[in-house]
């Protein structure tokens, strides 16, 4: 069994993302950093953990897609995992569809699993 290290602040980042999903709103990397400690760039590690270990691994919508850049209110360049490619012309539509799935999902019982 391979062990994945949980990045610093992941629990706090998960809580912020879950709250924003309940509120049906996106949240900037800067706001995540402000609320959870650290930097906007550093928030990428726990956000990636949420995407891969909490969402993808369990067949959930990718909660991470509601984390966006403050400059254009769209996800950063690394929001897709390396094994997923979306044609450029479909990227916006795909992202919006994922956001809708995140808003519709019940995140209340989702926690970090050891």
Largest sheet: 2 strands, parallel
**Could you say which structural class the secondary elements and strand pairing correspond to?**
mainly alpha
Number of strands: 2
How far apart, in Å, are the first and last alpha carbons?
12 Å
Give helix % range: 40-55%
- Share in β-strands: under 5%
Structure in words:
- The chain has 114 residues and is mostly helical.
- It contains four helices and two strands.
- Strands 1-2 form a two-stranded parallel ribbon.
- The longest helix has 14 residues, at 91-104.
- It is globular and about 35 Å long.
- The two termini are 12 Å apart.
- The model has no long low-confidence stretch (mean pLDDT 93).
Give the topology, please:
Layout: H1 10-22, E1 27-28, H2 29-36, H3 44-55, E2 67-68, H4 91-104
Parallel strand pairs: 1-2
Short description:
The protein is built from four helices and two strands. The protein has 114 residues and is mainly α. The radius of gyration is 13 Å and the shape is globular.
What are the salient characteristics of this protein?
41% helix; mainly alpha; single chain; 114 residues
């Amino acid at each position: 069994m391979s062990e994945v290290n949980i990045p610093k602040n992941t629990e706090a980042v998960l809580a912020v993302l879950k709250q924003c999903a309940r509120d049906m709103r996106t949240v900037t990397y800067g706001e995540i950093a402000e609320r959870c400690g650290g930097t906007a760039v550093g928030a990428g590690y726990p956000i990636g953990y949420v995407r891969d270990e909490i969402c993808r691994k369990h067949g959930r919508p990718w909660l991470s897609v509601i984390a966006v850049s403050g400059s254009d209110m769209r996800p950063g360049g690394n929001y897709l995992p390396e094994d997923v490619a979306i044609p450029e012309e479909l990227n916006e539509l795909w992202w919006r569809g994922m956001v809708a799935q995140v808003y519709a999902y019940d995140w209340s019982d989702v926690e970090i699993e050891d």
